[in-house]
Amino acid sequence: xKILGIETSCDETAAAVVExxxxxxxxxxxxxxxxxxxxxxxxxxxxxRQHLITILPVIEKTLSDATVTWQDISAIAVTHGxxxxxxLIVGVNAAKAIALSHSLPLIGINHLEGHxxxxxxxxxxxxxxxxxxxxxxxxxDIVLMSDHGKFxxxxxxRDDAAGEAFDKAARIMGLGYPGGPVIEATAxxxxxxxxxxxxxxxxxxxxxxxxxxxxLLHYVEEHHAVNTPQIPDIAASFQEAVVDVxxxxxxxxxxxxxxxxxxxxxxxxxxxALTQRFLKQSPIPVHIPPPKLCxxxxxxxxxxxxxxxxxxxxxxxxLDVIPGLNLS
Amino acid sequence: MTTLHIRSNxxxxxxxxxxxxxxxxxxxxxxxxxxxxxxGKTCLTQGxxxxxxINEYTLSPTFxxxxxxxxxxxxxxxxxxxxxxxxxxxxxxxxxxxxxxGVCVIEWAEKGEHILPASNLSVQFSYLSQHERDIRxxxxxxxxxxxxxxxxxxx
Lengths: 328, 155
Hints:
Distance between the termini of chain A: 27 Å
Strand content of chain B: 25-35%
CATH superfamily of chain B: P-loop containing nucleotide triphosphate hydrolases
Shape of chain A: globular
Low-confidence stretches of chain A: none
Strand order of the largest sheet of chain A: 3-2-1-4-5
Largest sheet of chain A: 5 strands, mixed
Number of strands of chain A: 10
Order of helices and strands of chain B: EHEHEEHHEEEH
Strand content of chain A: 15-25%
Structural class of chain B: alpha/beta
Mean pLDDT of chain A: 95
Shape of chain B: globular
Distance between the termini of chain B: 19 Å
Number of helices of chain A: 11
Number of helices of chain B: 5
CATH class of chain B: Alpha Beta
CATH topology of chain B: Rossmann fold
Oligomer: heterodimer
Number of domains of chain B: 1
Strand order of the largest sheet of chain B: 1-7-6-2-5-4-3
CATH topology of the largest domain in chain A: Nucleotidyltransferase, domain 5
Structural class of chain A: alpha/beta
Helix content of chain B: 25-40%
Order of helices and strands of chain A: EEEHHEHEHEEEHHHHEHEHH
Low-confidence stretches of chain B: none
């Protein structure tokens, strides 16, 4: 069964055709990152207008890459939250129009669950229950997944999301945007020597990166470090502090709950320092999607759509966007 | 213009000041926050949210520019950190939030000084040391003189 996935929750316009939730037939992502770079992040109004321009060409390219016609598609799965309202609306309305004109079932998908489903596109079949760490620009959540569609949120960030912390840190260090990739590149092969603070928030699965950000700011200011050879060490030390907390707390939570598998999801899961540390430190298997499926894409939405189709989910044309949609 | 000076020695104290503000605000109140990264802006906003009976963490709005919360009143938590021109600010729908019948808390408000209403409660944060922050609250306009008076009496 082939499902067309559509994803426009943030600044990537994406469409993909996935078979049976596991095999990518085509996967097209049109990134707006260069457009938003001058703002040091996404500007919703700009993103929304850009989605409008690219959504139809992206869908057409996806179908032609997959060499399929509408007759081959069994359902349309589309992200309807969480995300930026103006961006979500473009994808949801495109999906509704297509579903209506081709008489196809419409399935609204939670973007965060989509990120998790990227783990099924890797040639593996993770077993349940599974502990998921979702780390992106807007989220840092620890979620217990007992089956497809069944989640319990155990913890979240109390201030900055991990991806956001990277963006701010990059700005403080004068490294540009987006922060994750640029810090990873700057810190590559550098041994961190600065001990930045970690917020452990003991006995919870919550995170906090605000104090780390402040400590970084004062370090950089006190040492007049911008544009100096100290930056790689500072970047590596910052990255180390973030990775340390994410990895340690996730493994601890899995141990406390007796869960035997960990799954990573979200754009920050493309960071090699994070994934390598997980693989090194975790006593239990850790599933990690390939980097290009960690960042926003529609293959993960199509995959998730397949499982929801099998569960019987069918949405009406009243499907609404929910910018603050949660996993539960 | 009335000014209130508070020396906060912990995030909890900053949150407590925020909670008192949150309990005293009415629809269309505008609170402008300024101060460097890590000086307590989001922390004060967390308190304001609690004062509005919003039982969630107010996450940093930097990435998404605006976060909305639903409590006794709607809270719009806005961050101008990444925006540089008035046009950029209008593009995120700043007007809709400021006149949206909720309570608007705007971080990095100094960047939007030229387009934001002159009537507001302005809070300036200064970093003194690792655990100490200076919080200076200024009332601009009659409504905010009254708000500040209520806040000062509850501190």
